[in-house]
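Field reference: sequence -> structure
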Amino acid sequence: MNNENNKMSREEAGRKGGNKTAREHDKEFYQEIGQKGGEKTAEEHDKEFYQEIGRKGGEKTAEEHDKEFYQEIGRKGGEKTAEEHDKEFYQEIGKKGGEKTAKEHGKEFYQEIGEKGGNSSRSNR
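Structure field:
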């Protein structure tokens, strides 16, 4: 109790209330209120809102982490994906990626990357 009237500070009251709530509720309670909060946020905000907070989060993460961090999370993600999916999954996403690339690029694109690949193989001999 920090002020002259022996009243609790707002910070102290919040901490006590939070601790009491944590003691009285389980994981499902927090999942439910989190879901409700997420749904309410989604109702009130548009795509640009999420793009903006994603951009800010990405910039902050990039400031705080180095190349090795991204390599590590990429490796872990790749391993997890490989555990959960089979050969057909990779064939399907490869096919979709190839179709999308073909749709967005013309013949010249493939000629250019083919030449780059050919030149690279010759220089490695």
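Note: The mean pLDDT is 91.
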